[in-house]
Amino acid sequence: MSDINIVHALQMLLILLASVSIHEWAHAWAADKLGDPTSKALGRVTLNPIPHIDPLGTIILPLVFLLFGNGFFAWGKPVPVNPRNFKKPVRDDILVSMAGPASNLVIALIVAVVFGIAARFVDPKAIFRLAYQIIEINALLMVFNLIPVPPLDGSHVLRHLTKMSDAAFQKFSQFGFLILIGLLFLTPLGGMLWYAIQTVSNFALQIMLGIASF
Fold first, then answer.
1. Which residues are catalytic?
2. How far apart are CA 139 and CA 145, in angstroms?
3. pLDDT tens track for 96-147
4. What range defines the domain where residue 134 resides?
5. Which residues neighbour 113 within 8 Å (Cβ) at sequence distance 6 or greater?
6. Whole-structure pTM value
7. Among candidates 66, 39, 208, 41, which has minimal Cα distance to 131?
8. The total number of structural domains that make up the chain
9. How far apart are CA 202 and CA 142, in angstroms?
């Protein structure tokens, strides 16, 4: 294993830590603004990455994948939410769930704009690689979390669209990880996700290149 690979893996891990932290902060911030103080009371309405880190899912597994495999699999510490505190439980639970993926899209777009402007004043090669890494990681986090399987954010949308009972959703959640693994390895879902990730990434990159060449 070369020093270059180690440096690259650590750089990607730092980007992931920041992106996951913002993702989880967005859930907590949205929940607090919509009337549920649970996450705020637990110190989750913060951009400090420490409260949002799951040691296995945010550091160990991603680092192993980055050093020895292709891509990575990662997650942050779930933000506790009590929908009973919302004025409109169904609408607000969906909004809180979508706040995380939305934050990753916003990060990708902000990076595209900022790095596009910066490329007009410095050597583009020096910053485009970093920009692409940030954009792709956030596109991955956004798209992956939209899968409607627990514990991913999209499952809350599915739950409300199908009017799933609390008991049914809890049972669904018990097998969510196994269902997710099965879908990724036994169906075309993996390829569909990669296509969606590349579509989002390319959209942001086109914005960046357009600004850089304006």
1. 24
2. 10
3. 999 999 999 999 999 999 999 999 888 888 799 999 999 999 999 999 999 9
4. 3-212
5. 207, 208, 211
6. 0.94
7. 208
8. 1
9. 14
